[in-house]
Structure formats: C-alpha cells, structure tokens
Amino acid sequence: AHKFWATQPVPQLGEGPPLDDGYIEPSKPREEVRQEPYPLPKDFEWSTLDINDPKQNKEVYDLLSLNYVEDEDASFRFQYSAEFLQWALKPPGYFKEWHVGVRVSSNKKLVAFISGVPITLRVRGKVFTASEINYLCIHKKLRSKRLAPVLIKEVTRQVHLQGIFQAIYTAGVVIPTPISVCRYYHRPLNVSKLLEVGFTFVPRNMTAARMIRMNKVPDTPTLKLRPIQEKDVVSVADLFTRYMRRFDMVPVMSLEDVRHQFLSGQGTGKIGDGGEGRRVGQVTWTYVVENPETHKITDFFSIYYLPSTIIHSPKHATLEAGYLYYYATDVAFEDGADDDGRLKKRLQTLIGDALVIANQAKLDVFNALTLMDNVSILKDLKFGVGDGFLNFYLYNWRTAKLAGIDDEGGVK
Ligand code: YNC
Ligand code: MG
Fold first, then answer.
1. 220 lines ligand 1 (CB under 6 A)
2. Dihedral sign for Cα atoms in the order 291, 296, 299, 300
3. Which CATH class is domain 5-178?
4. Is ligand 1 within 6 A of the CB of residue 171?
C-alpha cells in the first residue's frame, strides 16, 4: 500500500520489535553515493535555497504560509515566520545543500521545499549524528503527483553526501513506521478570541463568562524568573543534559547548540517592539531561575512562537500560538522527588509560569505535546485535549516503540 515507503530503509508496518538497536542499511563511502540529482518532471528544476538571502527566505515563507500543514477541517494553517525559518534552518553546522527547493523552470517560481538540519541524537543507549527533516511542502496545485518521494530521495542524497545516514522526522500522517505518537494539548489564554474563531466551543453546562474566569492566569510568575543570558549557557547546558537522561530519545546539545536553541531566537530591540510582550522577530522565550548563592541555573523553560493563519474568520487573520519547548529543573535530582510528587509540583509551578509569560506576550493559546514530563502537569494547568496527533519517525534506525500516548506517557 506504500509504494514509496516500502522501498526505504525504515521498519515496515507490522514488523516485530528488533533484537538490537542499530542501522537498517550500512553507511556508504562518499564515492558510492549517487552523484547526480534525481530527475524531476519536465518544466521543473532543483534549487538550493540560500536562507541568508532575505528574498529567498521570503520565498520559503510564502510557499509555506499558503501551502503548509492545516488542521483536519482546514480551519487553521501553520504560519512559520521568516525569522522562525532563519532560526530553525540554520543551527550550528547546518548545510545549505540541505535546503532543497523545486522551481518552475520558466518563471523560477518556488513550488516545493524540503529541509534537513544536523542533529546529534541519543536513542536509548546509542548516540549518533542524524538529519532532522522538516518543512516538506508541495504547492497545492501539484499534489498527488508523486513529487514528495522525489524530494525525499533528493534530500536523502544530500544528507548522504555529508556522510550522514540516519534521520528523524515527525508528521501528522501515519506511514511506515512510527516509533512513538504524541497528542496535542491546548491551554486557552484568550478565550473570547478562541471562541470567536471556532478554535474552542462552550461546552454544555458552561458559559463563556465562566470559561474566561476559569482560564485566567496570574499577572506575574511565581518563581524568580529572568530571560536567559549568554552567561547562563554553560549552566543551562549542564542542567539540560542531566534532565534529559530521564528520556529515551533526546537531542544531545553542545554549548553552541544550547546558545542557538535557547538564546538566538529572542529577537532584537525591546519588548513591545514586535507587538505587546514581544520583540521584533522574536521566536523563542527562554526563562531561567538562578540560585542566588551558587549562581547556578536551577530551572528553565523555553517557548516557541508559531502562529497559524485562521482560514475563514471575518474578524481575525492570525491565531497567536506558543508551544512548550524544552525545560528542566534540578528538583528532579533530589532523592525521591519523582515518587513523592515534589517534581510534579515544581513542574506545575514552572510551566504555570510559562503560561504567565505566554499570556504577557499576548498569545491566544499555549500548546504542548504528550512528551517529556508534560502529561503529569497538563490536567492541573487546564490544558484541553486536541484533535491533532504527531507521529515520530527514525530513518535507517531500528529501535523498539518508545513510550507514547498508548501508555499515557510521552516520548520518554
Ligand atoms: C509526509 N508528511 O505516504 P507511499 S511533515 C513522509 N512524510 O508515499 P505525493 C509522506 N511521506 O505511501 P503529495 C508525507 N506525506 O505511496 C505523504 N507522504 O509510500 C508520502 N502537504 O507523494 C505518501 N507537510 O507527492 C506517499 O503526495 C507519497 O502531493 C505520496 O505530497 C505530500 O515535513 C506533501 O503536510 C506532504 O505539502 C508534500 O501533501 C503535501 O500529497 C503537502 O503524491 C501540506 O508521499 C504540508 C505537509 C508535511 C509535514 C514533514 C516531515 C517530512 C519527512 C519526510 C521523510 C524524510 C525521510 C528521511 C530523509 C533523510 C534520510 C537520511 C539520511
Ligand atoms: Mg505530488
């Protein structure tokens, strides 16, 4: 049933769990990797996108903002900003050849895109270099013509040319074969707008006024938070690494990676320049708690900003959404804290404060997936279950299923 995926080094549907973790097909020396680009249908040509060029950055933005992922009933479509794409596509050590576009030969219009960025992954006990594949997008007028497999094969070739043979990716669709599946949860912040645009509904035995009251968040955070600074990078990296030992599939981050992921997306100028509670070009908010005696960072959380286009509303063009990104707390390393509820309590306070920051930034909704320790705090922080699922995949790597929604956990 999967004409393309049946040919790829991925576990096929229905295969049992592997005896051992490892690759499916061995790596190849560079000279054995296909040297020519895969053929495209006539009238189309390959084009490496230079994301540093504002014009090309905008071309990718335009393609995605009209043609990228929509929800099930085509009410909302992700609207990654040009600044977000800059941030996401240029982590330390990125390869411009992994920003693969397809243009119409005659007028050079960009009509398809796929990207990869390098990542170091730990899956259970094994650490390896991989590519993270994202932003696969084909113009609506060119759908169902089997162009996607050509894009996937071409980016795979470009990854192979750099001596990398594994990949990680996520998708809403189920293809061979998810290693985990997570569910989206949503915490309403601007209830009246969410009702107006049909993102949420007033349940029976409830009124809009009561919903608004119930979802109010405090004006100020509980913890002594401040935005992350350059001087925090070493301490945050150390806390991040130790906290992530709790989970079975995690990125391994160097100091440069930590700086990029948590510091470089803060935007420029002062808060308010980019809208209420935001800087111009702001894509992430990372806040830390510093121990006043040791000056070590004891807690941090990070949020990324990913608005969606509201496809039908006469009144609102954009749904302002924040997503819970990484976080950590050193309460996790206190004896027994995981078992006696102290960790859960601290996470509730920490992520509760993330809601305060998101609300101050005038976001309409705060989203989280059922991964890391999120499940333990979603209910108490008044997140509601969404319709969306996110499947996680590895390319050319076998491992048994990771914890997911089936067991009320997350990618752990
Ligand atoms: C998808 N999302 O199953 P079979 S997520 C992977 N990921 O193949 P056609 C997908 N494969 O089943 P269309 C996929 N969606 O026959 C479809 N496929 O074996 C498979 N949507 O191709 C599908 N962005 O060209 C089928 O389909 C074959 O014209 C059909 O194009 C698909 O970025 C798409 O949701 C998604 O723009 C481009 O619908 C289009 O429909 C579209 O006839 C809106 O393709 C936007 C959207 C996807 C977001 C994402 C992750 C992508 C991962 C790709 C796989 C990477 C593998 C690792 C490579 C590096 C390896 C190394 C080393
Ligand atoms: Mg197609």
1. no
2. positive
3. alpha beta
4. yes
Q: Which atom of ligand 1 lies nearest, measured to the CA of 143? A: 29
For the CA of 69, the closest atom of ligand 1 is: 46
State if residue 2 touches ligand 1 by the CB under 6 angstroms criterion: yes
Same fold, 5-178 and 181-389: yes
Atom of ligand 1 nearest to the CA of 6: 19
pLDDT of residue 411 exceeding 60: no
Residue extents of the structural domains in the chain:
5-178, 181-389
* Ligand 1 atom nearest residue 68's Cα: 46
Ligand 1 atom 35: the closest Cα is on which residue?
69
> How far is the centre of ligand 2, averaged over its atoms, from the C-alpha of 110 (Å)?
14
For ligand 1, atom 47: residue with the closest CA = 69
User: Is the complex ipTM higher than 0.90?
Assistant: yes
- Residue 405 pLDDT class (50, 70, 90 cuts): low
Q: How many CB atoms lie within 10 A of CB 94?
A: 17
Residues 401-405: contacts with CB under 8 Å, at least 24 apart: 401/17, 401/179, 401/180, 402/179, 402/180, 402/248, 402/249, 403/180, 403/248, 404/180, 404/181, 404/182, 404/370, 405/181, 405/182, 405/183, 405/370
Q: Is the pLDDT of residue 407 over 70?
A: no
pLDDT at 409: 44
From the CB of 38, is ligand 1 less than 6 Å away? no
Domain 181-389: CATH superfamily, name plus number: Gcn5-related N-acetyltransferase (GNAT) (3.40.630.30)
Give every strand in the sheet of 308-310, ordered side by side. Answer: 76-78, 308-310, 318-319
The preferred substitution site among 138, 159, 309, 394 for testing ligand 1, maximizing ligand atoms within 8 Å of CB, is 138
Kindly give, in sequence order, each residue whose CB lies less than 8 Å from that of residue 131, ignoring residues fewer than 6 positions away.
98, 116, 117, 118, 119, 155, 159, 164, 166, 167, 168
What burial class does residue 95 get, using C-beta atoms within 10 Å of its C-beta: 0-12 exposed, 13-18 middle, 19+ buried? middle
- Mean pLDDT of the region 152-158: 99
